[in-house]
């Protein structure tokens, strides 16, 4: 069963470690993907991998801290593949900085990229989806938003913010046919996870089995992007709270 047959999906941060795996999995399930990233080369690499695997994709350069980027991304996606069915927000950053060293610039950068982009993207997507009475906004939160993590005050606040934002918007979307959910894929070996860790730490954590591989959560994302997840609205689906 192709769970995402005929769906148009726009994905931010699609050139990253998780974006590549989620893009491939969603395309395999039948979706056409507009892969966006601030790094066009990285977005293109994901789009190329999808096309090489027999799927449909385009690459779009977007800076998701800018509202206009979402209009451009959705216009491209819709011109190429038809009405937007799913927005998957993945773009994010995690500079590991203790509170006492946290500059306002770093704080603002993390909150703007991780949280404000989700608001900007969701607003633009929901405006298009409401008149069609269908669509899904999915965002990458993190169990860190609930648990916290040392040197992660801005990151944890941004991810907790995504969960609260998702719950609030889901109440506005009740019975509209449009849904919003978020998920936490668990600590996963990607460039973002490696930031601030020594080679020794990385080896130790991988050996201890406390870290997932980027593809491990892909089928959950496919499910959340599909109509099978219809009962879910306003949920935070996480596994790193349940180890
Ligand atoms: N890797 C983990 O352990 C983990 C765990 C939980 C949640 N997450 C979340 O998953 C998401 C993706 O993480 P990842 O591990 O794939 O990271 P990654 O660093 O591999 O990918 C992030 C991508 O976002 C892009 N990006 C950065 N700034 C951007 C901007 N202004 N506009 C558009 N794109 C921009 C980067 O170019 C990169 O391709 C993040 O939101 C992260 O917080 C990751």
SSE series: EHEHEHEHEHHEHHHE
CATH C-level class is Alpha Beta
The helix-and-strand class reads alpha/beta
Tell me which oligomeric state these chains represent.
single chain
* Overall domain count: 1
Number of helices: 9
Mean of all residue-level pLDDT scores: 96
- Stretches with pLDDT under 50, minimum 5 residues: none
* Structure ligands: nicotinamide-adenine-dinucleotide
**Major beta sheet summary:** 7 strands, parallel
How large a portion of the residues is in β-strands, by DSSP E? 5-15%
E-strand count: 7
| CATH superfamily grouping | NAD(P)-binding Rossmann-like Domain
The order of strands across the largest sheet is 3-2-1-4-5-6-7
CATH topology: Rossmann fold
Percentage of residues assigned to helices = 40-55%
Radius of gyration: 17 Å
What is the end-to-end distance? 30 Å
User: Outline, from the CA principal axes?
Assistant: globular
By CATH, the architecture is named 3-Layer(aba) Sandwich
Describe, in short, the structure shown.
Helices cover 46% and strands 15% of the residues.
Structure description:
- By secondary structure, the chain is of the alpha/beta class.
- The protein has a single domain, classed as Rossmann fold (3-Layer(aba) Sandwich), CATH 3.40.50.720.
- 46% of the residues lie in helices and 15% in strands.
- It is built from 9 helices and 7 strands; from the N terminus they run E-H-E-H-E-H-E-H-E-H-H-E-H-H-H-E.
- Strands 3-2-1-4-5-6-7 form a 7-stranded parallel sheet, sandwiched between helices.
- Strand 4, helix 4 (104-129) and strand 5 (135-140) form a beta-alpha-beta unit.
- The longest helix is centred in the middle third of the chain and has 26 residues, at 104-129.
- The radius of gyration is 17 Å and the shape is globular.
- It binds nicotinamide-adenine-dinucleotide (NAD).
- Residues 12-13, 15-19, 37-39, 42, 62-65, 90-94, 113, 140, 142, 184-185, 187-188, 190-193 line the site of nicotinamide-adenine-dinucleotide.
